[in-house]
């Protein structure tokens, strides 16, 4: 259930997630997709090029220890584990491979930040730190979440969990297509966004977690492979006259585990704001950028 704050009063209007106007959904998808990327590699097997998605991530930035900006992709530990260590890595920045780039692994630093012994429980957090040249190339077409700018608000005065709407976003393997035409290999990436609510779950001293329920009565994929490492977002709804608009979505976590389907439902487990802004953010703040 979402809630809509009517200004200037403190009254709330309740509505069903399924009643979100299509135009509002598309506006949110467009805004948060500007921070979302996908990882992939292209393999040649038996003389045929084959596309292999490796996971998703959110572009983030902080001020490093020397004051210069550090740019990185915040993702899951298990996604970092499957990235190649040499050669090139594909970064999907849009819904077609013509908008993707191949970057040299020499310009990336793969960081396995935290991993627990139970995949479903976490932690499962990783980073891909970008060289200034690669970061600049990506920044010309995408945006980076400034973890410094949002840190104090997120930690000291966060939005209530049950206020507004939550969304998850990442590049979905199940609906991504590979086409071989006269120009070669064309990949049609599928950037999926799901809307709903989130529930806080057991936290540790360092990490916090959310559960994002999924109801398969809707037109949803059977699996969420490829979305690991993608972002969890929260946004508020405003009513202006007869229309509804949204405030700026707040980056709130990282997807890392899909629970088993039970009674036609499952839940996607995510790292929360402390894991994002403190654990990952503080690691990046300790780095130097040139």
Give an overview in words.
A hairpin with a 6-residue loop joins β1 and β2 (12-15). Helices cover 17% and strands 44% of the residues. The protein has one domain (2-285). The chain has five helices and 21 strands. It has helices at residues 22-33, 77-82, 132-139, 147-156, 273-285; strands spanning 2-5, 12-15, 36-45, 48-63, 69-75, 88-92, 101-104, 108-115, 124-130, 145-146, 165-171, 177-181, 184-188, 191-196, 199-201, 209-215, 231-235, 237-240, 243-246, 250-258, 265-271. The strands form five sheets. Strands 3, 4, 5, 6, 7, 8, 9 and 10 form an eight-stranded mixed β-sheet that branches. It has a seven-stranded antiparallel β-sheet with strand order 14-11-17-20-21-16-15. A two-stranded antiparallel sheet has the order 1-2. The chain starts with a strand and ends in a 5-residue tail after the last helix.
């Amino acid at each position: 259930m979402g809630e809509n704050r009517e200004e200037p009063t403190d009254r709330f209007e309740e509505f069903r997630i399924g009643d979100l106007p299509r135009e509002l959904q598309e506006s949110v998808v467009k805004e948060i997709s500007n921070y979302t990327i996908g990882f992939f590699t292209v393999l040649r097997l038996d003389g045929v090029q084959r596309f292999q998605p490796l996971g998703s991530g959110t572009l983030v930035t902080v001020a490093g220890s020397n004051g210069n900006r550090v740019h990185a992709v915040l993702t899951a530990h298990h996604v970092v584990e499957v990235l190649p260590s040499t050669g090139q890595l594909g970064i999907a920045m849009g819904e077609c491979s013509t908008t993707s780039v191949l970057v040299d692994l020499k310009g990336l630093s793969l960081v396995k930040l935290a991993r627990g012994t139970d995949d479903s429980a976490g932690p499962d957090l990783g980073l891909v730190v970008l060289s200034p040249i690669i970061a600049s190339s990506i920044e010309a077409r995408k945006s980076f979440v400034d973890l410094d700018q949002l840190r104090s608000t997120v930690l000291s005065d966060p939005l209530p969990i049950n206020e507004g709407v939550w969304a998850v976003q990442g590049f979905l393997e199940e609906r991504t297509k590979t086409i071989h035409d006269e120009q070669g290999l064309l990949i049609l990436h599928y950037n999926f966004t799901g809307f709903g609510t989130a529930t806080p779950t057991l936290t540790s001293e360092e990490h916090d977690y959310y559960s994002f329920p999924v109801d398969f009565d809707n037109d949803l994929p059977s699996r969420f492979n490829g979305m690991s490492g993608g972002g969890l977002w929260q946004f508020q709804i405003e009513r202006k006259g007869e229309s509804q608009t949204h405030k700026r979505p707040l980056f709130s976590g990282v997807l890392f585990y899909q629970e088993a389907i039970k009674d036609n439902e499952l839940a996607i487990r995510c790292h929360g704001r402390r894991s994002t802004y403190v654990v990952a953010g503080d690691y990046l703040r300790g780095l130097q950028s040139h």
